[in-house]
Amino acid sequence: MKAKRVDCGYDPAVPDAASKEHRGAAWVILPTYNEAGNIGRMVESLEPKLTQEGDRILIVDDGSPDGTGQIADRIAASNPRVQVLHRPVKEGLGPAYLAGFRVALEGGADLIVQMDADFSHDPAYLPRLLAASELADLVIGSRYVPGGGITEWGQVRRLLSRGGSLYSRTILRVPVRDLTGGFKCFRREVLEKIDLSEVAASGYSFQVEMTWRVVQAGFSVLEVPITFRERQDGDSKMTTAIVAEAAWRVPIMRIRGR
């Protein structure tokens, strides 16, 4: 099925804050693994951006050995807007997000935001994504549309990231500039229609697969510009195995989607 609309670029009509009259409850999903140095500051930064009574922050911790889960529990104990989902082992980014999506849907979320917990995605952009959700079913914080960008990356990593998006866009024939971007806002009905049990990617190819499934299901996509930063605390989760998974999984998506 073809998408009814795919907007690739920044719509200047998008304000920097969502209408309180129209926006429903937003849940921000934060997957964590060894983010002890970031999670407290991230929650503090996000809270002022979540202005509705039903807004929540859901931390999905995959058994972090550095105590991230325990820190998250202490935050949640003193903050009713924060919930923690503990998973016993590290299974990858995709399964963590899918578990978080299900909890958010069961909790009554109208908008579900996914973002990194390490400040690669600046919480200051959250109001823009929420506002843009009034115009599209899926909003992507994009590095590769006018106004977007990346800081603190070397040339090799920039080429790898752009090349990965171009590779996926070419094979899947999806006109989204930042297919590997991980800062997203889904409307509830999008995740309800997509069969989450069929999402197979576990690493960063999960980002590609979710956007591709949204387009295949006929929903609209809008990219808004963000500047992506390198993490300031902790270690990158990118590995050769994750890159390899994306390389072979993307063609399989195309074959199965025919």
Folded structure, characterized:
The protein has 258 residues and is α/β, with parallel strands linked by helices. The chain has one domain: Alpha-Beta Complex (Spore Coat Polysaccharide Biosynthesis Protein SpsA, Chain A). 36% of the residues lie in helices and 16% in strands. It has 8 helices and 10 strands. An 8-stranded mixed sheet has the order 1-9-6-8-5-2-3-4, sandwiched between helices. Strands 7-10 form a two-stranded parallel ribbon. Helix 5 packs parallel to helix 8 (240-257) and helix 7 packs parallel to helix 8. The termini are close together.
Q: Approximately how much helix is present in the residues? A: 25-40%
CATH topology title: Spore Coat Polysaccharide Biosynthesis Protein SpsA, Chain A
Largest sheet: 8 strands, mixed
Uncertain stretches of 5 or more adjacent residues? 1-9
DSSP strand count: 10
Strand order of the largest sheet: 1-9-6-8-5-2-3-4
Radius of gyration, whole Å: 17 Å
The rough form would be described as: globular
How many helical elements? 8
Separation of the first and last Cα atoms: 9 Å
Which structural class do you get from the secondary structure elements? alpha/beta
Mean pLDDT: 86
- What fraction of residues sit in β-strands? 15-25%
Q: What top-tier CATH class fits best?
A: Alpha Beta
What count of domains describes the coordinates?
A: 1
CATH superfamily membership, which one? Spore Coat Polysaccharide Biosynthesis Protein SpsA, Chain A
CATH architecture label name: Alpha-Beta Complex
Helix-strand topology string = EEHEHEHEHEEHEHHEEH
